[in-house]
Amino acid sequence: MINLKINTNSVKDFITENEIKLFEAEVDLQRKKIYEKTGPGNDFLGWVDLPEQIEPELFDSIEKDALDIRKKSQVVVVVGIGGSYLGARAVIDALSSNFHNAEPQRQGNPLVVYAGQNIGEDYMHELLHFLNDKEYSIIVISKSGTTTEPAIAFRLLRNHIEEKYGEDHAAERIFAITDASKGALKKLSQTKKYKTYVIPDDVGGRYSVLTPVGLLPIAVAGFDIRKLVEGARNMQAFLKKEQDLFKNPASLYATVRNILYRKGKTIEVMANYTPNMMYFTEWWKQLYGESEGKQHKGIFPAGVSFTTDLHSMGQYIQDGVRNIFETVVRVEKPRHHVTIPGDNDNLDGLNYIAGKRLSYVNQMAEEGTMLAHVDGEVPNLEISIPHLDEQVMGELIYFFEMGCAISGYILEINPFDQPGVEAYKKNMFALLEKPGFEEQTLKLKERLK
Ligand code: PA5
C-alpha cells in the first residue's frame, strides 16, 4: 500500500470524467513505452527499476562513509548543481527542523551547506571564510564531471581544504560522486585517491536522487536512506501494477495536467503550506521544467509557499491571466503540536481561535484558498501525504518522477534530455574566451557593444 493520495475533486469544474477516460489508451501506450523501454530517451530509464535494484552493499557502504563524515565534520559542503543538488536538499530540508542550520550540533548532525549551485563571488568568499575555523568534509557531485559551476567551486574548496589539512588528509575528507569512467571529476578523483561513488549511466541528473547523488548527503544529514528507498520501492511496485488510470496516481496526474494544458492552462503552480517543503518544490520545478520544456511546448512549472505567498503571488493566481492551474502538496500531520493560547484582554481579537492548533488554522487557509482559486478559474489538484518522513518522501519522489515521464511522453517530447541548457553554456564559454570558441567570442562581443 502507498500513503500518497491524489484528489481531483477541484478540477471537476474544468474537466469531465469522460475527458479523462478518453486518455486511457494513450496512457497505456506511454506506460508501455516506459516499462518496455521503447520511447524517446530510452537509454535514460534506469530510474524506473532503480529503487528495487539498489544492492544492500551500497547502503552499507554509504552508511559507513556517512558515519565517518559525521564523526569528523561540523560542516559538510555538498557541491553540485541542478539534478546533482536539488534532490538531496529537498529531502534534507523536508525532514529537518526548520532551524537545523542554526543549531545542527544540538541535534548531533553536521551542518549541511551547498556550493557549486551558483557563481556568486560573495557566496563563495563567505563560505570559505565560514569554513576557516570549522572541521569539514566535501561531497562533490557531477555526473558529467565537467559542469562549470561545481568545477569552479570545487577547485576553490579543494585549495582551501588541502591548505587546512594537507593533501593526504584532505583526500580522506573528499567524496566524489560521478560517472563510472569519464569526465574531469573522475580523473581528478583517481589522481587524488578520493573515495568515489558512481551515478549509473542510464540515470539522468534530475532522476538521480535515489542514487548516491542523494543518498550520501541525506545519510550524512542523519536520515534513514533505507526507509527512503523503501518508500520509493512501494510506489514503484504500486504504479507498475495498477493499470487503472483512475487508481494510478502518476497516470492520473499526468493525464489531468495534460488535459488542462490543452485547455490553455500553460502554467502549473506547485503550492505548499509547509515551509520545509520549499526545496521539494524547487526539485519538482527542475524535474518538470527541464524534462518538458522542449520544442516550444510544455507546462511552465512555478512554485509558491503559502500562506506566505498569498500576500504576494496570491493576487496574481486569483485574478491575473487565467492560464494557471495549481497542484497543492498537502502534508496532513505536522511533527509538533502548537496551540493558540487564550488571552483575557483579547486586544488582538484572536480569542475566536484560542485553543485551536496552528495546523487547523493552516488547513482552513488551505481549504479557503482552494475554493477561492477554483472560483477564480484556477483548477486545483491535491497531492496529500500523511506526514513528512523518509518513507513518504521516497513515495513522493518516485510518484513525481513517473508522472513526469508519462506526461512528457503524452506531450511527445523526450523527457530525459536537456538540449536547451547548452545555449547559455556556449555563450558563457565564448565570453570567457575558452579555447575553441574564438569565432563565437568575436560575434558575441560585437553584439554586446
Ligand atoms: O537533470 C540534469 O541532467 C541536470 O540538471 C544536471 O543534473 C545538471 O546540469 C548538473 O549536471 P552534472 O551532474 O553533470 O554536473
**Computed Rg:** 23 Å
| CATH fold group of the largest domain | Rossmann fold
**Helix and strand pattern:** EHHHHEHEHEHHEHEHHHEHEHEHEHHH
End-to-end C-alpha gap: 61 Å
**Fraction of helical residues:** 40-55%
Strand order of the largest sheet: 1-10-9-7-8
Question: What distinguishing features does this structure have?
Answer:
47% helix, alpha/beta, 5-stranded parallel beta sheet, 5-stranded mixed beta sheet, Rossmann fold, 2 domains, 12% strand, binds 5-phosphoarabinonic acid
Overview of this protein structure:
With 449 residues, the protein is of the alpha/beta class. It has two domains: 5-39 and 228-410, Rossmann fold; 50-223, Rossmann fold, CATH 3.40.50. The chain is built from 18 helices and ten strands. The model has no long low-confidence stretch (mean pLDDT 96). The structure holds 5-phosphoarabinonic acid (PA5).
Structure summary:
With 449 residues, this protein is α/β, with parallel strands linked by helices. The chain has 18 helices and ten strands.
Topology readout:
Blueprint: E1 5-7, H1 17-21, H2 24-35, H3 50-53, H4 56-72, E2 75-79, H5 86-95, E3 111-115, H6 121-131, E4 136-142, H7 148-165, H8 167-171, E5 174-178, H9 184-192, E6 195-198, H10 212-220, H11 225-241, H12 249-262, E7 267-272, H13 278-292, E8 300-305, H14 313-319, E9 324-331, H15 358-375, E10 380-385, H16 390-410, H17 422-431, H18 438-448
Helix pairs in contact: 2-16, 4-10, 5-10, 5-13, 11-16, 12-16, 13-16, 17-18
Bound molecules: 5-phosphoarabinonic acid (PA5).
The site of 5-phosphoarabinonic acid (PA5) has 14 residues, from loops.
